[in-house]
Amino acid sequence: MAKQTPYGVMRRLILGGLWLAGASGAAMAADASQLGTTLTPLGAEMAGSKDGRIPAWKNEVQSTDGWTWGKPRKEFWKYKNDASQYTINAANMAQHADVLTPGQMALLKQNPGFQMEVYPTRRSCGVPDFVADNTRKNVATAKMGADGWSLKTAVVPGIPFPLPTTGAQAMMNMKLRYRGVGVEYQNGYTMVSPRRGSEDWITAGYEQNYFFPTGKKGSFNLSDVGNVEYFTYFTYKSPAALAGQALAANILFDSASNETFYYFPGQRRVRRLPAYAYDAPQIGFENQYLLDETAMFTGTLDRFDWKIIGKKEVLVPYNTFGAYDFKAKIADVVGRNALVASARRYELHRVWVVEATVKQGARHVSPKRTYYLDEDSWNAVLAEDYDVQGALWKVREGYLVPVYETGTCDVLAFSQYNLPEGRYVFDFTTVGAGVDVKWLTESRGERTKASFYTSENLRAISDR
Predict the structure, then answer these.
(1) Where is the signal peptide (predicted)?
(2) Residue 337's domain spans which residues?
(3) pTM, whole model, 2 decimals?
(4) Would 343 be classed as within a structural domain?
(5) Which of 88, 191, 298, 463 lies 20 to 30 Å from 343 when distance is taken between CA atoms?
């Protein structure tokens, strides 16, 4: 196997192509008048790049007329007829090194057949007016806690720090990106590729709901809606070894005291799992998937020191409808070593580069991580984890798509590549599910209420 990229080399590679964030960014953060003028409503640079490869941001509707939920999203996308401009593979990646990350170069070099199809850049991730208004208010209102990682005050729904000066602020923006009040998977899948020498996949089917209390339309103080980032519930439908297991949890903005309850059908009881967080392996996936790797990153920020390294132009997964094609067959999208190239679309975008280093006195199996946050939407579109020896270990790709329900863009589906073991995880996908994921903009039924996500209710609905 090729030698992994040491962390120090990765840092030098990144710094070679960054615009460093410094005192000028701090000064800009105090000036709300730039939002919607020289900056987008969420704080991105409105202008395109000097060389024209990244266009100016557009405030436009991305779908064409006629889309309703249940119809394939890509068929109604304004730019569905875009053609690939060029292909990057192991043979020519050196020519494009200035717009690739260390993780991407490792995938191209080590993963047989991995290639990247590059398309025109489409900068049209939008935001509803009320979210833009709240984001503007947050310039003078939002504050982090004294600990430096928790959120103390903000106006929601909105981005709390549209021009962040710390890495924790940037990650809090990712957590508070507008996604409506909920996400609903009637059928979703988590897939883990086989071990070397085996053909046995793990394919877990599930039903899952997210409820975001901060996503209600309007303008609210965080203290009025509570400090919960999200509630979630899921239950496995398959395979037999997992079927019937279920979870209910809440993740908080200002505390590491998240509550997770798990139902074990063989015991017919619900257990509270206080240690089921951070780098604990998720049940059923052969140590390939940690809790805080879910959806690129989940959980509280307290175990790491977060630092903004700067901004960089990078080829990132963008408008990747192939990862959400609920009418496609799994075999046509999910390859042995990676998703097929036609399901992954890459565009050149500016991203915030945020470095996470485990705090002194804390522990984590990935003591260093790098996150790449899309400047237009605050989604995490790439991430890299390093092991205790400083070698590149895992690479995550977040598959961003425009969300017609909310008028924003979101990342749900993602892949995670374990470089030393040659395996990958593909989660939050509806490929092969026969039914689309749904974003909810209005509260609807018991699953958009906190009372649904209690241990008592989990026990009541989990009897088999």
Answers:
(1) 1-29
(2) 7-461
(3) 0.94
(4) yes
(5) 298
